[in-house]
Each structure stands twice: as C-alpha cells, then as structure tokens.
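@here heads up, posting the sequence + SMILES for the zinc ion run so it's all in one place. Ping me if the SMILES looks off, I pulled it from an old spreadsheet.
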Amino acid sequence: MKQLSPRQIHLDFHTSEKIPDVAQNFSAEEFARQMKEAHVSSVTVFARCHHGWLYYPSKKFPELVHPALKNKNLLIDQVKSLHKVGIRAPIYITVQWDYQSANKHPEWLIRKRDGSHEGPAFTEAGFYQSLCVNTGYKDFLMAQTAEICEILGDELDGIFFDIVGTRPCLCSACRAEMKREGLDLCDDVQVRNFAARVMDRFKSEMTSLVRKFSTDCTVFYNAGHVGPCTKKSKDAYSHFELESLPSGSWGYLHFPVTARYARTLGKDCLGMTGKFHTDWGDFHSLKNQAALEFECFRMLSYGFASSIGDQLEPGGILNPATYRLIGSVYKQFEEREEWARPSIPMTEALLLTSEPDNVESKIPESVMGAAQLFEELALQFDISDKNCDFGKYKLLIIPEDFRGDAEFSDKVNEYVSNGGKVLAFGKGGLTADNCYPECFGVKYEGKIEKYPDFIVADGELSSGLEIGNEYVIYLQGEQVSPITAEPVLYARAPYFRRDGDYFCSHKYTPSAKGASYPVAFMSKGVVFFSHHILTQYRKNAPYWCKKLVSNAVKMLLGEQMITHNGPSTLSVSVLSQPEKGRVNLHLLSYIPVRKSATIDIIEERTVVRNVKIKLNLDKKFTKARLVPENTILNYEDGEVEIPEVNGYAIVELS
Ligand SMILES: [Zn+2]
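bot reply: prediction finished. Complex structure tokens:
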C-alpha cells in the first residue's frame, strides 16, 4: 500500500474578488519556513476556489485569474518553495461549487425537479449553487485540470478535487441521457442512482486524464464523507481523505465510523480536521490544543496520516499562532508515527452497515450507537457491508436495521457453521418474507405491540445489573419466538400502550407485572436480541443496554482481544507491525464535553492512572514499554500495567 505524507495541511483559499491586494504580503521563503517549523510534510494549495478564481497565470482562462491577485504566480511559488524544503504540495481544484461558472453558465447548474437550482438565491451570500458534471462544465474542468498539470509538470504531487458528491440532477443534459436509458424521471431513486453513475463516470474519466500527466501523483475526490457511496468508484482514488471536523457538522463520532469503514478498502487513509474552533472559514479562531491533539492522535491510533484544515488570509501570510499550535501537535505526532505507519489494525469483529451507496453521510443510527458502544467496550472492529469476507472476523454484528436476503442467510449460516459468532438485533438479517438466518433458531412474529416494555434482569446476560429489576427498553422491539434457540432474557409488558385515553403519568405506562416473554435468545454461536438495542444506545445510551451487549459479547467470544479497568472514555486500538515484530496499543484519554448548545469541547487532557490492560492475542509477547518515552512496563500473565495515561499513550509489545 502506497503511504501518504503523514502530517498535512489543507490550506483553504476561497477569496473574494472584493478584497484588495490579495497575496500582496506573500513571501515564498517565509511560507515554506513556517510550514517546515510546524513539522508539516505536505500542504494542499489552491488552483481554483469556490469563488471560481484561479491562483496561477492561466493562459487558457485568463479571465478567471483572481482579479485582485497581486502575485499572479501564487500557486506556483507555493509549490516550488515547499518543494525546496522537502514538503509536498498537492493541488486543490473545486468541482461542484464554482461561483463564476454558476453565474456565467446557468446551463451548467444542477436543476431540481421544479427547475430551480441548488443552494441559496444568487442575491444571497454564498457560492453553493451546485454545478452538474454531465454538462459542458466537465469540459471546462478537464481543460483547467490539464492546464495546471502541464504547468507543474514533474512538480505535480497530486490533485484534491473538492465537492464531488451524488446530487440528483434534472438539467437538460441529465434528462436527455436518462430518457435515452429508459429511466423514469419521476422516480427519485432512479434519478439518484443515475446521478451516482454520472459522478462515478466523471471520477474515472478525470483520473484517466490526470494519469496522462503523472502515473503516481495522488488523486482524491472529496464528498465530505467516505463510505459505501465511495466503494464503487474506489479505483479512481489513490487514497482516502476522511473530512470530519468534529466541531463542524460531523461531531466526534463521525470519524471513527468512517475510519473503520474506509480502512477496509485497501488504500492508505488520512483523517482531516481543522484548526478552527468551529468549522471551515472560521479564520480568526484557534482550536484548543487538547482537542487538536485528540483529533490528530486519534487518526494515528487508526494508523492514518493527518490533515489539518486552515485558511490562508487574503494578504497571503500564515497566522503565526496557528502554526505554533499545529507545530506543537505535529511535533508529538512525528515522534510517534513510526508506531502507527504503516501498520495493520488488529480486529476481532465486523459490524455490518446498511448505509446506502447512493447518498453521502446517511450513517444509520444503529451504526452510530454501535460504534459508540463497542468503542467503550474496547472491542476491535471494522465496519463493512454484506459483501465483506466474514471469515476474517471472530464476531459478526448485525444491527437491527440491516435487512437480509436468502443469499445473506446462507452466508451467515455458513459462517456460524465454520465457528463464527453472531450478535444480532431486531430485524437484523430478516429477509423480505420475514425469515431470519436458520442459525438464529428464532421465528419472526411481528412488532411488540405493548411498549415500552421491560427486560427483567436475570442470568448470565444480565450480569452486573440489579437481578430481578425491570429495565425499560424505550423503542418498540420485534416479537420473536424460539424454534431451536434457548431464551436467555425475558421482558414484561406495560398495562397498556400509551395512546389516546390510555395513559399514565408523564411518560410511559409501567410494568403490569404480568407473564414474561423471551426477548433474547442463544443458539450455537449466536446471541439474538429482539429489541433495537444499538439504536436505543444511540438515542439515550442506557447503561443496561451496554451491559447486556457486553455480556453477550463475553458469552460468544470468551475474552475479547482487549479488556481494561479504565473508564469508558478511554479508547484503545491495536495496531500490528509484523515486519518490526511488534504490536502497539494506542490509548487515548480526552473527553469531549457538551459545553455549548452546538458543539462538544475538549479543553484538557484527562489523566488516567493505573490502567491495567488484559490482552488476549494469538501471538505472545514478552516485553512491554511506553513509546517514545522508553518506559519499561510491568507485563505479566498477559496483563500490562500503565502507571499513567496523560491524553495519549502508546504501549509497544515486542
Ligand atoms: Zn445534470
């Protein structure tokens, strides 16, 4: 796998023409020196921005060179000065957002069903009127891309194409092609799938064009998300950049979900965050250092490279405080990256996702809940779809919304008969004709009509809960009866379902203390919950739901690869470096706090002391030390003891 440059900056430069003297104060030497001092190894610099302006002396499109740009050679000077100090400089080109093109070429705009364009009206601020790459705009994009490739020649390191998403379009070009294909233009699904195909074709053609100029430069298409929507066109990418600014619309859970999916696609990945307190374009803000540490170190804990988003101010000078901040994080990153890159994540479980492949950022709530829950349990897991090779994993997790079919049932049955374990929920694995895979040993009977209902803690599955206590499951579950499986958990119904004249108190009707019925089942290699436990955890994270799942994992796997006595906020990931004869545990202790109405804040590291990690690895190691500090750790009977984790710690086992 070709490795990315490890410590990157994504240097936005969307700059209004109404600002005078753009890049007037830019100094190529100073620019490169600041980057070098901040331990940066690659900077993505701008050829064309969302305003639609070019930052190099274009011969093909002189009218698009930024009219207020003082240094017409800005981009070229940036690239050459960075190369002089050994820093890479891939090129940024905007795709679907380009204000100049949107204004001058209404025929290139994406059209909604009612004929209107996307984004705000042209009388409002913003450049979000999206363009269609199935129009003459594609020819323009190709010509402009070819021009910058030619100008840079051997100095072309890569291209980052931005805003390349699946956006249904009914412009005249798309309508004509859909009609030729016999598609129903009134069917939103057909229109969306067509848009996805158009975009995949565009990526494939664009990569072929770039490859005429460079066989090994990086090529990436950004849609703000990497997931099943990326998989079909993955050959067009050299690598994946996981844009995920936790203080933007993404939140802190988006990155681990996409990272666990993207790392199964067989290409190197980087995580992308920002130096901003909030989101892109937040010029005069600095992220708290602890937050930036957590975000970058978390990327490293997945074995990924890092990219920090910044925006160059119009005058062309990098903000010194920003690069002191970035330098303080990237220095630590650099000292630790040899224990993460390259590496192979060691995983024991596969979480299936029903995320659609024709729309970005529709991560199912079940998967969000599962990611949170299993990270708390330190389970080592990947996320993928039903086409994945289940045999690589000891445990297969089928969320409640992951519907199956006959082929899927066969695959699951075979997996279990070969010794694989399955943890399934709700309608997970259920076919359209309401059959679960045979190995579940249960029969579908419809929805539980009286809900919320109440599990009664009892037996091994309830270990750690108050035995005999009733615990509510708020979401409506499925009614399931055993065929060959053994019930391992029961529930009781409320007096009645809260509806119309039937209500009691503020919330839901309490337990009628009547007969109980089974709601979790065990058969050989399978634990099945009829409730939507993962979605429930996403909704309000009941501790009892986590405990039930944790016990189920234990009943299925015995010992997990990793268990620890630390808090649930401590994350642990396991990276193998077989060529160096070692396995590294990456421990992170930073706690995002909902301090504001809109975003989570990390202000400081959280120190955790006397962490004991129990290891259940196939390979046995004899030595454990903290790196890069080289502190030898107490390591006996497969248990390693870490006196203190101050934010981030790496334990090397050799
Ligand atoms: Zn179109």
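MO: The longest helix spans residues 188-213.
MO: One more: The chain has 14 helices and 29 strands.
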